[in-house]
Amino acid sequence: MAQVTLDLYAQAIVAAITDPVILVGHSMAGYPITAAAERAPEKIAALVYLCAYVPRSGQSLAEMRRAWPSQPLEGAFRVSKDRASFAFEPTKIKDKFYHDCPPEAVALAMARLGPEPIAPQETPITLTTASQSLPRHYIRCTQDRAIPPAFQQSMTAGWPAAQVTTLSTGHSPFFAAPQALAQRLIDIAATLGTP
């Protein structure tokens, strides 16, 4: 787990792209998609942050999270003994991430959750025009219990109104409202002239 880095995430994303794509990052993946855009902006038509962290230059995701006044995930995860990874407390997962999702989706997700490496979330990123000049969109989830809606709003302060939309869901809109999310992504693609 200690060998997993933010840079490796970015490398993996870039390696998977052939033609330019609209890159969607959910939750902590706001950092990896931005790092990928810094590495290869020519492969990315736009960045979409789905109830995700929007990086601040010079800060890590963990620093951003800790600086926010409320901490909804406090006590919801355990750090491994070697401090290389963390895992969410099974009894708190549904309430924090899937409270508005169908039971079958919750079961599917729970069966696939595992430890996550800490290093990518503790790694600062330096932003340049490579990522910041790309079209960027944000989808806020107004019932989110993991990344507070007010925090999501703060991260997009100053963004053009047309680039920020909302869904009335919790942290997992791909389970809670898949059709609405798909339509939102189609609408974003249409604004870019992407089929």
From TrEMBL:
GO MF term (any one): methyl indole-3-acetate esterase activity
Domain named AB hydrolase-1: residues: 8-183
InterPro entries: AB_hydrolase_1, AB_hydrolase_fold, MES/HNL
Name of the molecule in the record: Esterase EstC, putative
Native source species: Rhodobacter ferrooxidans
